[in-house]
């Protein structure tokens, strides 16, 4: 039951105006609080030991169109680490799967992320499970864990990692192997992956040097 002040307020100025007058400013929406929002503490990183027989490395959209020196210099700077991750995966016999988006072709892939014979390639939008056989390929190979790296931390990495987790895969995301056009996009993607409902129980953040 409403208290007397609420009833008087409604009677005098109407319900919607009353709600606005009696509500805290933050109730108007995040846009009103935008400049005062403080970033949360950085999520914890985990040391990861992979089982090569049940792990796949998803190399997402590392082509010149999506990892361009002018628009995503952070991605280009990441490429030497990508080469190290690929070398580690191939040495351990981890399944390596590549993706591309838009009009990109294998010829557009940076040399550090180049495909080798027998490594599958899928083309799709930000969610690489959408309208592809990626899930079937992973299931057929007995994959239980995917490591997601690549361009567009807020795009292909975020959406493909999320989609994998929601499909029941365990997901590893090295924070130094996902890039965007700004550090903020990388930050919020990392936060989202371990805090969103049903994702946090499946996703672990790590860094290249902590993967064994």
Automatic annotation (TrEMBL):
Domain of life: Bacteria
Keywords of this entry: Hydrolase, Signal
Official protein name in the record: Nicotinamidase-related amidase
Keyword Signal: yes
Stretch forming the signal peptide: 1-27
Keyword Signal: yes
InterPro entries in the record: Isochorismatase-like_dom, Isochorismatase-like_hydrls, Isochorismatase-like_sf
SUPFAM superfamilies for the chain: Isochorismatase-like hydrolases
């Amino acid at each position: 039951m409403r208290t007397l002040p609420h009833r008087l307020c409604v009677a005098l100025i109407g319900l919607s105006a009353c709600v606005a007058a009696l509500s805290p400013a933050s109730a108007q929406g995040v846009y009103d609080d935008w400049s005062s929002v403080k970033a949360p503490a950085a999520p914890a990183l985990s040391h990861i030991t992979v089982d090569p027989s049940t792990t796949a490395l998803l190399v997402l959209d590392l082509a010149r169109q999506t990892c361009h020196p002018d628009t995503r210099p952070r991605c280009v700077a990441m490429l030497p680490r990508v080469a190290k991750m690929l070398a580690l995966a191939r040495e351990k016999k981890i399944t390596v799967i590549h993706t591309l988006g838009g009009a990109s072709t294998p010829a557009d892939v940076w040399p550090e992320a180049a495909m080798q014979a027998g490594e599958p390639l899928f083309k799709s939008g930000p969610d690489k499970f959408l309208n592809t056989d990626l899930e079937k390929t992973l299931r057929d190979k007995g994959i239980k864990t995917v490591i997601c790296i690549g361009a567009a931390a807020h795009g292909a990495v975020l959406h493909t990692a999320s989609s994998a987790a929601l499909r029941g895969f365990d997901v590893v995301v090295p924070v130094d192997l996902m890039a965007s056009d700004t550090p903020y996009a990388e930050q919020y993607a990392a936060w989202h992956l371990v805090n969103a409902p049903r994702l946090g129980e499946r996703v672990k953040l790590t860094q290249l040097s902590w993967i064994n």
